[in-house]
Specification:
With about 200 residues, the chain is mostly helical. Helices cover about 50% and strands about 0% of the residues. It has five helices and two strands. It has a two-stranded antiparallel sheet. The radius of gyration is 24 Å and the shape is elongated. The protein starts with about 35 loop residues before the first helix and ends in a 19-residue tail after the last helix.
């Protein structure tokens, strides 16, 4: 485009706006089935459940970690705990997984033996969660599969087609991970926060 391509004395360009009344009902979700959107919504909601569980697990595991005997070190640890709890309330899934990993490694009373495997599963789930929550869903193919447009920070584009079966399997796997996180707390003998289940309460009121 040259500097003089648009001048004050030239003709006015043709201007356009979207005709809102002609937008298809349900746009931009009208091309996918209701079953697809329900499966996606339930899957995303299950990731929300996982985040909630991780935050409570961080509270329970860090709250039952023994403090240093030295008073100064104990005071420092308590201040750090306060900051950890703030992050447990505000962090998204990736940050919560990091907090959970740090917590289980710092608490010698954790008895679950497959922690590393669980952490690997959680990290993989976090990557997929970003795709499902933030991707732009392109038109489905004849089988109802859709490739969400999503590029991560490494400039890697997601390329796998997703259908209802994939979403259902993802939701079930995410729920299983959340229950495994709960088990880390209850296997220590503590009640998982806010459940009213068996075990010793982490915080008695």
């Amino acid at each position: 485009m040259s500097e003089n391509s648009t001048t004050s004395s030239g003709p006015e360009p043709r201007r356009f706006v979207v005709d809102v009344k002609r937008v298809p009902p349900g746009f931009p979700t009208q091309a996918h089935s209701s079953e697809f959107w329900e499966a996606l919504g339930r899957t995303v909601a299950t990731f929300g459940f996982l985040e909630n569980v991780l935050g409570k697990a961080v509270f329970a595991i860090t709250g039952t970690t023994e403090l240093p005997e030295d008073p100064t070190e104990a005071e420092t640890a308590l201040k750090a705990w306060s900051r950890t709890l703030e992050r447990a309330l505000t962090d998204a899934l990736g940050g919560l997984i990091q907090l959970f990993a740090t917590a289980v490694r710092a608490n010698s009373n954790v008895t679950t033996t497959n922690i590393d495997e669980l952490l690997d599963q959680l990290k993989q789930a976090a990557n997929l969660r970003n795709v499902l929550c933030h991707g732009f869903w392109q038109l489905p193919d004849a089988s109802g599969r859709s490739v969400p447009f999503f590029v991560n920070r490494k400039i890697e584009a997601f390329a796998s087609p997703i259908d209802v079966q994939f979403l259902t399997q993802t939701r079930e796997a995410t729920l299983e991970m959340a229950l495994s996180v709960i088990n880390v707390v209850t296997h220590m003998g503590f009640q998982f926060p806010s459940t009213g289940g068996p075990g010793e309460p982490v915080w008695a009121v």
